[in-house]
Every structure is written in structure tokens, then in C-alpha cells.
Write a structure and sequence with these properties.
14 helices, 5-stranded mixed beta sheet, globular, 7-stranded mixed beta sheet, 15 strands, 18% strand
């Protein structure tokens, strides 16, 4: 499995930090109701809690909050998660504790080394991570997470998470999402060739691997093109598209890069189809110069339905956020990603063990998660390992979009024959 250079730093620092617990109970101390606790839980109330009779469970958030390529999504992701845990507290908390997901919120700038640095600063003060944004950034702290029983909810969808006990992923991974995109395109567009344009690493390579696997199964020629992040670095990808003229491009980049590639290729006469992996899209792109090209050529895959969907979970999210927010599916993602950690904490509390090890054990025993209708039944089977991975995704079209979050749905939850039959025996990106 690929690992980044920052892992060396993570390994060196793994021994440090646990002694710096911010008022945490001692290891295996008895918490509320006789439940075992250790790092990241205090008998004292959370700093902003109105419930002075409750202790506090501290969760960390590490996200792309300022200058990275995903900050337009990451800021609402983080805000939704804060509101999610506030709702949990308003509904009674967890076994005599409120949850604090605000004290330890840090910016990773989508940089693995920065991600590891801020993780090291907070790891002795939190029970778990409510968010770890990015697959290459999360990879930088995984060895330490394993060693110290730190559970994380990722803001990412790499297939590697199917093999990680310390990760609670939600939705179809990039590999299955891309398989579904190619299977859909096979019937809708009859492509003879497909090009994967993608960033390097666990994110882009995972989607490209799924594209390759589905292309081979469907007898479609596959072309692999890696690109770097940055709108000024897409000339090579655009040249590859225009010169090789694939019928279909599966693009896995940041949103601004998507606009640069689609708009640039269209400007030079490309008329094929693009399908973007979920993090490649932001509805604000429909207010960019690339909007006409996106409306004409682009479809968007997604792991779950958009902000205005009528489900109990979507309604709860909108109520918690208030009417003043601008719809953004970063909010939707942040809310959805929080349900499995809530289920794991409740299960650990019911088992009498809210230690880090107890929470990890509880997480891996879950056979389903109540997403309040935001994901279909059957999602959240962590006990099932790779075979239990959720494989359904959706497809949207910005053709009649107006820059709000809700572009029209083209295809509801579906799983194509490639993903349905695929044996996930290792991370997909290792097969690219």
C-alpha cells in the first residue's frame, strides 16, 4: 500500500503526545455510569455546554480550511459536523457526556506534513477524529492511529479504507464510483475509449483504477493521464484529451481543475463526454467561464443525494444549519459522515467501554448504521470488511443547473455490473 513521506515523521512522533491529555481521565478510569474511559474524555463539562451535569467527549477535526484545493467543500463539511454534534447533545448526549467537536479544529492546507503536525498536537486530547480530510493526508497519520487506537471519520472515499480498522468510511469509494460511471456510460454513450484524468495518490489513482477495471471488463480502450493540482497546470491534460480524442473522460481532480480541463478541452474543439468523481465538482463552477462547457459535456457522480433532498436526515441537517446558509453539498457530506461515529460511540457506551480501544472495537462490530435515510439500507456494514462495502452511487447533470447545489438527478442509487461482481481484495489503486 502506498504511503507518503510524512509517514516517517508519524512513526517517529508516535511515542509522544499521549501524556498531554487535556484534563482527560486516566487510562481505564471509570466514567459516567461505570463506563471505562481513557484519552479524550473528561468528567468536567465541555467548554460551551449548557449541561453542567455531563462530562465531555472531545473529537478532533482536521480539514482543508484555507488554501487547499478542497476548502470550498471542507469549510461547510466542518460546519455541518459541528452542528451534527450539537444536535446529539441537544438530544441527550452519549451516556452522560456531551460531545465537543469545536475545540480541536485544525487546518491541514491539504498538506500531509501539516496534517500530521496538527494531529500530533491534538492526539493526546481527543478520543477520536470526527473528520480527517483527504486520503493522502490521512495516510500520513494512519500508522499512528493504528498504534494508538484512534478512530477517524474520513472526508474521503479511497478503497484502502475497506482494509482499515481505524477508519469509518461512508458511501461508495472512488473505485466503485468510477466503475459505476463507466458502466453507465457504456449503455448511455457507447464509448470505444475512456481516459482517466486524475491527480496522483490514493484519491486520483483509486478512481483511475476503477475506470481501468471497468473499461477492461467492457472491452473499452483505457488511457491513463495524471495531472497536478492547479488551474495553471492542466495544459498537459487538455493536450492529451484534444490529441487522443477519447469518447469519455473520467476526471478526478479538484473543482477548479475540473473547470480548467473541461473548459479548455471544449474551447479546443473536444466534444466527448466527461464524468467527474464526486470531489471534482462544486456548483459554483456553473458561475465560472467554463459553465457552458460543463452544461454541454459534463456529468457528475455522487455518493449520496443533494442538500435539498427530502429525507429525515436531510431535513434535520437543514434545520440545524438554519435558513441563512447557502446550499452546498459540503454540508451534506459532513452530516452523512458523522452518523457512523455516533453509532460507534453509542455502541461503545452500551458495551461499557468508551476507551479508544473500546470505540474501535465497537466500530468494527457494526453491521449497519442508521443514516436517517441519507443512505439506503445496508450502508454501514463495517463488520463485513471489504465484502460489506457499500457500492451504490448516483449520477447528476448540471445541464440545467443554475449554480445552486441541486443539479438534476440523472440516475438514482445504482450499482453497475463491474462493481457488483468485483472482489475487493486490495486497494484498487495498487492495480493501476
Amino acid at each position: 500500500m502506498k504511503r507518503l513521506g510524512a509517514l516517517t515523521l508519524a512513526a517517529v512522533l508516535a511515542v509522544a503526545g499521549l501524556s498531554a491529555c487535556r484534563g482527560a481521565d486516566k487510562t481505564d478510569a471509570q466514567g459516567a455510569g461505570g463506563v471505562k474511559t481513557d484519552t479524550g474524555i473528561t468528567k468536567e463539562p465541555c467548554p460551551k455546554s449548557e449541561h453542567k451535569d455531563r462530562g465531555c467527549i472531545y473529537l478532533g477535526i482536521i480539514s482543508d480550511l484555507t488554501v487547499g484545493p478542497f476548502h470550498a467543500l471542507a469549510v461547510p463539511i466542518t460546519e455541518a459536523q459541528k452542528k451534527f454534534w450539537q444536535r446529539v447533545n441537544a438530544q441527550g448526549g452519549i451516556g452522560g457526556y456531551d460531545v465537543d467537536a469545536e475545540t480541536y479544529v485544525r487546518d491541514n492546507k491539504y498538506n500531509p506534513q501539516t496534517h500530521n503536525e496538527v494531529y500530533q498536537e491534538m492526539k493526546g486530547k481527543i478520543l477520536a477524529l470526527a473528520q480527517s480530510l483527504g486520503s493522502p493526508t490521512t495516510a500520513a497519520i494512519l500508522p499512528d492511529m493504528r498504534q494508538n487506537n484512534v478512530l477517524a471519520t474520513p472526508a474521503a472515499w479511497t478503497s484502502a479504507y475497506a482494509f482499515e480498522d481505524n477508519i469509518l468510511e461512508s458511501g461508495a469509494n472512488y473505485c466503485f464510483e468510477s466503475m459505476n460511471a463507466v458502466d453507465y456510460a457504456k449503455d448511455a454513450f457507447k464509448p470505444r475509449s475512456v481516459m482517466a484524468v486524475h491527480l496522483a495518490g490514493d484519491y486520483g489513482d483509486d478512481a483511475a483504477a476503477g475506470t481501468k477495471i471497468a473499461a477492461e471488463k467492457n472491452g473499452i480502450t483505457f488511457i491513463d493521464v495524471k495531472t497536478d493540482s492547479g488551474t495553471d497546470k492542466q495544459a498537459g491534460a487538455i493536450n492529451a484529451i484534444v490529441s487522443q480524442k477519447p469518447d469519455l473522460v473520467i476526471i478526478t481532480t479538484g473543482p477548479a481543475d475540473t473547470a480548467a480541463v473541461v473548459g479548455g478541452a471544449a474551447q479546443r474543439g473536444y466534444t466527448g463526454k466527461f464524468i467527474g468523481t464526486s470531489p471534482s465538482w462544486n456548483p459554483g463552477l456553473l458561475q465560472s467561464p467554463a459553465a457552458p462547457a460543463l452544461k454541454a459535456l459534463y456529468l457528475q457522480t455522487a455518493p449520496w443525494k443533494t442538500f435539498s433532498t427530502d429525507s429525515p436526515g436531510h431535513r434535520a441537517m437543514r434545520e440545524a444549519l438554519g435558513s441563512s446558509v447557502t446550499p452546498n453539498d459540503g454540508y451534506t457530506s459532513g452530516w452523512v459522515w458523522s452518523y457512523p461515529l455516533l453509532a460507534a460511540l453509542k455502541k461503545a457506551q452500551a458495551d461499557g467501554d468508551l476507551t479508544r480501544a473500546g470505540v474501535v472495537k465497537a466500530a468494527k462490530s457494526l453491521t449497519k448504521v442508521d443514516y436517517e435515510g441519507m443512505l439506503p439500507d445496508g450502508a454501514g456494514n463495517y463488520a463485513g470488511g471489504p465484502d460489506g462495502q457499500f457500492r451504490q452511487s448516483l449520477l447528476y447533470s448540471p445541464a440545467t443547473g443554475n449554480g445552486t447545489t441541486d443539479v438534476p438527478l440523472v440516475k438514482d442509487y445504482f450499482v453497475g455490473p463491474t462493481a457488483k461482481d468485483y472482489k475487493l481484495d486490495k486497494p484498487c489503486y495498487e492495480k493501476l
